[in-house]
Amino acid sequence: MKRRDMLAGVAGLLLGAGLPVRARQGEDRMTLDKPHEEWAALLPAPAYAVLFEEATERPGSSPLNHEKRDGTYVCAACYLPLFSSETKYDSGTGWPSFFRPLPDALGTKTDWKMILPRTEYHCARCGGHQGHVFDDGPPPTGKRYCNNGVALRFVPEGEPLPSLRT
Hints:
Elements: H1 3-16, E1 21-23, E2 30-32, H2 36-42, H3 45-53, E3 71-75, E4 81-84, E5 88-89, E6 97-98, E7 106-111, E8 118-123, E9 129-134, E10 144-147, E11 152-156
Antiparallel strand pairs: 1-2, 3-4, 3-11, 5-6, 6-10, 7-8, 8-9, 9-10
């Protein structure tokens, strides 16, 4: 069975169950199409503001800045794994920073809110805003994925990843 056929079957089951899921045209990945009101009911207000209103948390306010254990950082909304702890580093910016996301975990768009263009990135599954990527990171990528801590949830190595939230 081809991956595309399997994903189409899963989408059919989910749609039959009444869950709001859609496949982006030309992609095999399933994405959530949940109304923002539903996300607001599931998330703490600060996380909702960052993820679905593109707010920014205060620098230095996230406990994830000091997280040093091995594990996985997942989207705080849908629990899609986004970053491995192996790619986290202290950028000195006050936000959790990573030099590489997990494969197919993020989408990007141009953000003009600061007048000059920046690259905003978001969860590829639920579309939740995570942060911005810059070209001043360490080797091997030279990238700095500057993430809002409230948009992430840390899962220590050895603990099961949470089921993807739909």
